[in-house]
Amino acid sequence: MFTGIIEKQAELVSRKVMGKAGKLVVEIADGYDSFSDLVIGESIAVNGCCLSLEKYSASLRTLEFHTLAETLDKTNLGSINKGGKLNLERALTLNSRLGGHFVSGHIDGTSEVISLKKQGDDYELKIAMQEELLPYMVPKGSIAINGVSLTLVEVNDKFFTVHLIPLTLGDTNIGSFKGGELVNLETDLIGKYVAFQLKSLMPQKKKSNITMDTLAQAGFF
To answer: H or E segment at 69?
Structure first.
């Protein structure tokens, strides 16, 4: 479990795919302080995707993760170029402040950046809407973009927007977003559970047996 408050930025050093699995190696861009007590096997969100730490080197400031081929295929971790920036967050502890919102690290889908532009003292990020994610998005609700906890502003079937302060742009890889860039999305965890429960309680529509032939036989045309 994570909060969507990014602790470090890293750069992609290498990505190797071997059959149905792969290796992802990243280098922490600045300082190793908050990552000095790493434990092999712990969960770290990389661009919002929960991965298990397999190896690390404090001297080289590198972290290595074992990834499934499906993970690389279903998230932007499989398409980011070498040297590309990644957001890192260690898992939530029981004595941590919950500064963002509950983030599971399970990516719901990816989408493309439409624009990132200055709006007053802040910035507006516009991202193309994915139809399957629309039911879980509401204005003023939460969303994680590349693992960053943000608040939805405008939501429609074409796009959604969030507003960002300069601090967020500087401390995460969102500041380097370009139009057409693929980003990881995780919708609100609580909202997904509520939607699932409501759907299971609603009566299911029965499949109609009426066909064009039965209408013709009944004399409708």
So the answer is: helix 69-74
For residue 188, which of 178, 196, 200, 180 has the smallest C-alpha distance? 196
Instruction: Locate 58 and state its tokens.
Output: 């404090």
Give the tokens for residue 206: 């029965």
- pLDDT tops 70 at residue 46: yes
What is the rounded distance in angstroms from the CA atom of residue 22 to the CA atom of residue 77? Answer: 11
More confident position, 156 or 95: 156
CATH number at residue 44: 2.40.30.20
Q: Long-range contacts made by residues 28-33, C-beta under 8 angstroms, separation at least 24?
A: 28/61, 28/62, 28/63, 28/88, 29/85, 32/58, 32/61
Domain match, 42 and 12 both: yes
- Six-digit token pair at 90? 């260690």
Q: Give me the sign of the Cα torsion angle 65, 68, 70, 72.
A: positive
Q: In terms of residue numbers, what domain contains 42?
A: 8-90
Tokens 């719901």, residue located:
108
**Residue 2 gets which letter from DSSP?**
B
